[in-house]
Write a structure and sequence with these properties.
2 domains; disordered C terminus; Rossmann fold; alpha/beta; about 20% strand; about 475 residues; six-stranded parallel sheet
Length: about 475
């Protein structure tokens, strides 16, 4: 069957406009894997990445009409659901016989809500979608009952049916290497709004899942608490193929890459053995920051490391069930610096339900006290599928009927100790001063001199247009409020 797979753009909660500035423009690996798997079995998938190409909804609709597919699959998250709905509803009105399928996190956790409220939606793919989407296409092509397809929710005779969950893919090596020729060579590695490099970039994964259960994250629910890895051989084979295509920058999208120290060291030694000259970036946990592992990562080409610090206050860390301490965060940064990781990016969350202004101040002071290159400040948000969303709904603090699509900023809920406007003013006054400190600027200057990777980032912002883009980012760094 001919299928169009769409990665819709996120929408700014403040302006309602497409949030192109703060969206990472990298290969949409999930959809790319779905398309590659379907193509392997004779289907004809085409990918449209709305955000990367800065397409309006009208542009996307026109492209789909020109292709005239049998099926349209859209990967939906809470920030992209508004665009997804507009695109899907218009396409169904254009061709009532067109099959519309939603997938990804939101479709997994809100499938019944969607099918009850979206008359133009035919089915939701829940959880890992590669095998499920392929079998769904098979069933429609051959006129078989959808009841035979595990992992979907769908409408039949006016009723909503939810089939059994699809068994997880335990052997990840059975998945094909993504067919990156299905997308153009125009992707760059962005820390939201800041282009890390001008090099051709792609995404890859080594593992799926995470054994931790942070209350703001839906990963554990999505992967049912499992943690699975690809073989080192399979990963290296794909990485070599990526390098042969002229790609220089590779982003690992693992939920928890650094979980198994010995395995990561083995993997890094293999990368070194292959002499792959790549800039790699990934996420890590602060309680998995062994020096020998980080040093091997550096020698293998890992240039950027993302840490989820979240808070400098133990009570808030416990509320998020992070299983870390502020001291662990300090040690992790020191170990990463000792290992000579080029760039350390850290996320911090403010605005928990009973968090106080003083505790936010403590977190900002903590940010100033640790040697992070770029701290990203986020507003706490309850999203469908996360433990924090379920807890707030159970306590009748959050109305599931109201927030099942987009979730909600916790600071806007009844019972929040802080007020949005006061928190925004307080944080704005203090956050930008972090970057103006002489010690921060001096460290950045010397590290830029010492690191070819960092010099590449700086050099591109000597271009007036790119520098204006950088200023816009910092000026709007707190638009999360």
């Amino acid at each position: 069957m001919k299928a169009v797979l769409i990665a819709p753009a996120a929408v700014s909660r403040d302006t309602g406009s497409d949030d192109f500035l703060t969206t990472r423009h990298m290969h949409p690996l999930g959809i790319l894997l779905l398309a590659t798997y379907a193509k392997k079995f004779g289907h004809e998938p085409i990918i449209i990445d709305q955000s990367a190409f800065r397409l309006t909804n009208e542009d996307v609709i026109k492209k789909v009409k020109k292709i005239d597919p049998d099926v349209v699959g859209i990967g939906v998250l809470s920030k992209s659901i508004d665009n997804a709905k507009i695109i899907a509803a218009n396409l169904k009105a254009w061709n009532p016989n067109l099959k519309i399928v939603f997938g990804n996190y939101l479709a997994t956790f809100s499938a019944r809500h969607m099918l009850e409220n979206y008359p133009w939606l035919d089915a939701c793919v829940r959880g890992e979608g590669e095998v499920t989407f392929k079998e769904l296409l098979d069933a429609w092509e051959k006129g078989r009952s959808l009841e035979e397809v595990d992992g979907i929710s769908f409408k039949a005779n006016g009723r909503i049916k939810e089939n059994a969950d699809r068994a997880l893919i335990m052997d990840l090596d059975t998945l094909p290497i993504p067919d990156r020729s299905m997308l153009p060579d125009m992707y760059k590695n962005d820390v939201p709004g800041i282009q890390e490099s001008s090099y051709k970039t792609t995404t890859i994964f080594f593992s799926r899942g995470c054994p931790y259960a942070c209350t703001f994250c839906a990963c554990r629910m999505f992967t049912r608490g499992t943690y699975r890895v690809r073989s080192v051989d399979a990963f290296i084979k794909e990485l070599c193929e990526i390098a042969s295509m002229g790609t220089k920058s590779v982003v690992l999208v693992d939920d928890n890459f650094t979980l198994k120290k010995k395995l990561i060291i083995e993997l890094c030694k293999r990368i070194q053995k292959e002499k792959l000259d790549l800039f790699l970036s990934t996420e890590g946990r602060v309680n998995q920051s062994d020096y020998s592992m980080l040093r091997n990562m550096k020698l293998a080409g890992f240039s950027t490391l993302f840490f989820g610090f979240e808070s400098g206050v133990q009570r808030i860390l416990d509320y998020y069930n992070k299983k870390i301490t502020p001291e662990m965060s300090r040690v992790a940064v020191k170990q990463a610096r000792k290992a000579e990781i080029d760039a350390i990016v850290g996320t911090f969350i403010v605005g928990a339900l009973d968090e106080t202004y003083e505790e936010v101040n403590q977190t900002i002071n903590f940010i100033k006290s640790i040697d992070v290159d770029f701290p990203q400040l986020l507003l706490a948000r309850a999203l469908p599928g996360t433990p924090i969303y379920a807890d707030l709904a159970r306590r009748n603090i959050l109305d599931d009927d109201k927030y099942w699509e987009a979730g909600v900023d916790i600071i806007d809920l009844p019972g929040s100790v802080m007020k949005r406007n006061i928190l925004k003013r307080m944080v704005t006054e203090r956050y930008m001063k972090i970057f103006a400190r002489p010690i921060y600027l001096l460290r950045a200057f010397y590290r830029n001199l010492a690191s070819p990777f960092r010099r590449g980032i700086v050099n591109q912002y000597l271009n007036p247009n790119e520098f204006r883009r950088l200023r816009t980012l910092f000026k709007g760094a707190l638009d999360v409020f």
